[in-house]
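One such shown below:

_____
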Amino acid sequence: MAKIQLGTENGATLGNPPSGDYWFFNDSNNSDQYTRRNSSGIDVVFGAGGGGFSPSLRNVSSTDTFATAGETINCTSGTFTVNLPTAVGIQGTTYTLVNSGAGLITWDGDGTETINGSLTIDLAQYTSRTVQSDGTNWIII
């Protein structure tokens, strides 16, 4: 099991935790958001500071990429692609995609990373899916 360490230092001064450890810290460089840094030095920023972890919601109508852990993207119109970041180094991170528009939305993993074994999945109108990183690829939960 990974050990959790807490810090309040600027993310740049923490360095990388030992293998299997994670740093959680209030990051003054990210508007007091909480940041998790894994042993590979990959940072995942969560919600707003002071109120815990609060997922964000963005409405989009053209090609976009998830930017914040726990984020929900609502596709409001059109047919386009929404991209996932790399699943590597962010095991447990989730993203939700909603298609509230009339178009067909394609969800694309990073490079050759898959979503339940497929390079892409399509979401028809009025459907949603949540994926979680297994550290290598994405799984629908």
The chain has a mean pLDDT of 79. The first strand starts at residue 3 and ends at 7.
